[in-house]
Amino acid sequence: MPLKKPVDNPRRKTLHNESPLYDDKSDIGDINKIRTVTSDSGRQYDSGSFFPAGMQPFEVAEFLDSDLIGGLNLKQIKKRISRHGANIITNEFRLTFKQSLKNQIKGLIGPLLIACSLLMYVFESQYTYLALAGVTFLLVIINALLESRASNALNVPRKYSAIKASVTREGITDITDSRRLVPGDIIVLSEGMVVPCDARLIEDNALAVLETPVSGKKGSVLKDSIYIAANDGELVYPNMVYAGSIVTGGYGSAIVCYTGKDTLLRRINEKKTDFLPLMLKYIQRTSKYLSITAVFACFTLLLLGALTGRSIPELFIISISIGAVSLCDSMLSLSSASFGYGVKMMSSKGTVVKNLNCIPAICEINTIMCSKNTAFPPKKMTLSGIYTYNDFLAADKKMTDRAKELLYIALACSDIKFSNHSKKRKNVPDFKGRIYDCAIALFLAEKGYDVPKELAEFFKIDTEYSLSGEVSRILILYKGRNIVVLKGAPEFILSRCTGYELNGTGYKMSQITRRRILTALEQNSHESGYIIAIAAGETSADNLRDITAERRLMFKGFITLYSAIDVDNASAVYKCDQAGIETVVSSSDSYYTAYNMAKNAGIVTTEQQVVSAEQMYATEKGLFIANCPDYKLFLNFSDSEWLQILKYRKDDKRVVGATAERLEELVLMNEADVSFVPESAPDTLKQSADVLMLSSGFDTLIDCLQNARLIFVRIHSVAEYLTVGFSVLFLTALFSLIVGTPLPFRVQEILFGGIIFNLFFAASLAFSPTNRKLLMEKLPKYKPKPRVADFLNPLIYSSGASVSLLVIYGITKSFSATLLGFTVLLLLYAQTNIFRTSIFKKKVFGNPLFILTALFSASIMALLFLFEPLRVTFAYTNITLLQICISLAVSGGYFIVLQLIKLWIDIYTAKKREKSLLPAQK
After folding, report:
1. C-alpha dihedral over 735, 741, 742, 748, to 10 degrees?
2. How many angstroms separate the CA atoms of 742 and 749, rounded?
3. Where does 351-376+566-694 sit in CATH, by number?
4. Residue 912, Cβ neighbours under 10 Å: how many?
5. Contact 805, 744 (CB under 8 A)
6. What share of the chain is helix, strand, coil (3-state, %, to 5)?
7. What does the alpha-carbon distance between residue 581 and residue 365 come to, in Å, rounded to a whole number?
8. Does residue 805 have a pLDDT over 90?
């Protein structure tokens, strides 16, 4: 029976047009009402169609054979997972072996060369043509294998894109991996979560959702579970939530309707036929342009050959072979394999690049803005002393009652948890919590105290947390009294205290006492890496919201902890400094703790590089902006203030990479050029991040920068290098036809030098190892689309190299010498770099794989020239020592001269730049 036209909802039109937002006054009366639809308003529907936006929730549940309260059972879940597959809402790179073969066949050059080679073999019975056909066919297979393997590697980041979902199954609500969701599941929606699938709302309470990924509209939209759609002509509906959207307010529940590739987000993105990262699109375009150039080159050589009276059949197979030397398909295959391998290695090093298009931006980062917890997490802490009653007690001294009480109060103001006895330490429980809380608990346990038992005497009534998730204030019941406890940075705690305790008696906090405590703090901060201050006071309040809770807050003392310097982090900061990458850190620690941490890590050298939020507001704005580039450590800056610092850096033309770990820092992530998020961050941040950090530490960030640059260098080195072999052979043949001299090479030289050796050297560049100076190199900038200017260096080199080949053959009259010279020219160019500098100015980086391919190529040439059966088969003559010397002298001499010219240009440019910086003389 067809659907009846639903009764017009007075809110439908406004919600459908998405005009009322979360704070719309027209919805104030409904904000606190939970809208639930029951079967009382049931209506008939056509069981042959499924349009959840036009159905009541119970109708959707009936259609999907689910229960709105209990959800699905295990048998249903298992069956539906096998039917619908994993709920993956991100698009994947799909390039199978078969698809790669099809793409290469469409390129024509490879199949045409195979067909022509076999045809030539039929008529002339030369094994060279058979070998050429076999190598070309093998190359097609290798390219397909490389691209299919690269496709798998590029999908690695999707493994870390899973969203956590709260789902009800068999009447039990639990947190599960969203990839296991199936149609019919009942999910709970709450503020800050990413919607894992397309679902029909069951109920909602002021539920606001940001649907930009699917609708393209900015701003949150208020959802309405009561709304019933009249037709299916719209993209999004008010009673539906869609995969990839973000819940920005309220809460609700919904029944899953579509998962995986059936979600609206996937269907929208499926219309995009190309999901290649920008760097590979650049290579794809370069390969396409090179392929077109190769075809044009073939016709040009054939036309000139016909005009000059050359043998057309011979010139035809040579022209096609020269076109194949462009290795267009291999360029994309090697680059894809190199890209996939690099991304996979980055994951193994602790960083997952979720946004593969951000790799060029990572290479350009020259400012890293990070929070102290993300970039410099303490690996281990040891309690070094306790300050209480105006007296400092070292950790190795006998414990006093007042010191013991201070430590237990500090643990009471924490979220530390205890488990069974540790396997590493006898009669000592395992502690789980903040690293400094565990250090205090371990200290007490090693002194022989039963920490869990004695800590149970402190009964928690109310708890408050800081923005970073740490327990900052707590109300406890201890010895029959309500006591409020504060724990945190000494300067902050002291400002809240009205007095201090001395020998069990409370005294008013005077300026003299405050200065004495601060002096003790400063003295101990030089020896300790971390200081925690404690304040406590008896109160009659029964919750922390009571404004009288801190009326009698007394300073109890502070605890000093030692944290060993992480050598890897300090080394990473030093590398950044050497590379011209500034490190900017935000910290909520006390001044001395934060300053010592930053100084020991090498971030700051003087106190003039430290600024607090109070100092910022006390300074005239223009003066602060002018001095802002000098500040490296920012203390107690709010999220909005830290965001403003990022904007100041970007105004100075800096490329900023920023870390974020809290939902409030989402705006900061969007403003940064590249965002880094730890694995412990909320799902919303992880889904929005460019890079996911699997392990904390500044060294992890630097490894990411280093590996991103390595990927960049590998790919662009392959693209530039592969244009050389083709250009050299084409220009040599072109000059030879114009001048009227014999061609200095045959199909044999093209086969071995232009295809086999050329491919070996390209592969060694695609998988070249990193080097410690890569972070300091200035990388050339490439536009999204290839330009002639990008390949100016290879073209200049090829022009001279083609003349060198003509000279070698003109002197030696030996194809063996030509093959040797051509191989040496390719070998030497592969040893140059994309940094556009002379090898005499910049040391050539070692590449073991390149050395192996060079030795392998030399071995093949030795067999061709010296091993009689191969020499006869491929029609080579014995190469003399004189011919070898001539080949090496001409090719090597040309290379050296070119590098000397580049060196002179580098020196001249540097002097000119220095001269321009000097003040003008009157």
Report:
1. -30
2. 14
3. 3.40.50.1000
4. 9
5. yes
6. 50, 15, 30
7. 7
8. yes
Residues 818, 336: Cα–Cα separation, whole Å: 32
**CB-based contacts of 403, cutoff 8 Å, min separation 6:** 386, 388, 393
**Alpha carbon of residue 105 to chain centroid:** 35
Q: Which of these ranges, 69-83, 202-216, 264-278, 493-507, has the smallest mean pLDDT? A: 264-278
CATH assignment, 12-90+162-270: 2.70.150.10
Output the six-digit token pair for 538.
């008896």
Closest-CA residue to 298 (of 117, 102, 112): 112
pLDDT at 672: 93
Give CA–CA dist 379/532, Å, rounded. Answer: 17
d(Cα 714, Cα 708) in Å, to the nearest integer?
10
Question: Of 164, 176, 223, whose CA–CA distance to 72 is shortest?
Answer: 176
Tell me the C-alpha to C-alpha distance, in Å, between residue 669 and each of 64, 210, 491, 792. Answer: 39, 17, 30, 37
Provide the pLDDT for residue 317. 87
3-class secondary structure per residue, 65-116: CCCCCCCECHHHHHHHHHHHCCCCCCCCCCCCHHHHHHHHHHCCHHHHHHHH
Position 836 scores a pLDDT of 65
- Token reading at 559: 């605890």
User: Would the pLDDT of 88 be above 60?
Assistant: yes
Closest CA to 151 of 90, 95, 89, 91: 95
- Which one-letter amino acid corresponds to residue 79? K
Residues facing residue 385 across a β-bridge: 394, 560
What does CATH list as the number for 381-563? 3.40.1110.10
Provide the residue count of the chain: 922
Are 12-90+162-270 and 351-376+566-694 in the same CATH fold?
no
The Cα–Cα gap between 556 and 187 comes to 47
Report the C-alpha gap between 826 and 725 in whole angstroms: 7
The DSSP secondary-structure symbol of 655 reads -
Q: The tokens 């708890």 sit on which residue?
A: 463
**What dotted CATH number matches 98-150+276-349+705-913?**
1.20.1110.10
Bridge partners (DSSP) of residue 208 are 222, 249
Closest by alpha carbon to 803, among 744, 757, 756?
744
Parallel, antiparallel, or unpaired for β 656-659 and 367-371?
parallel
**Cα separation, 463 vs 484, whole angstroms:** 10
The residue extents of the domains of the chain are: 12-90+162-270, 98-150+276-349+705-913, 351-376+566-694, 381-563
Q: Which two tokens stand for residue 892?
A: 């090597």
Is the full-model pTM beyond 0.70? Answer: yes
Distances from the Cα of 769 to the Cα of 255, 339, 361, 483, angstroms:
50, 13, 21, 60
Contacts of 348 (CB under 8 A, 6+ apart): none
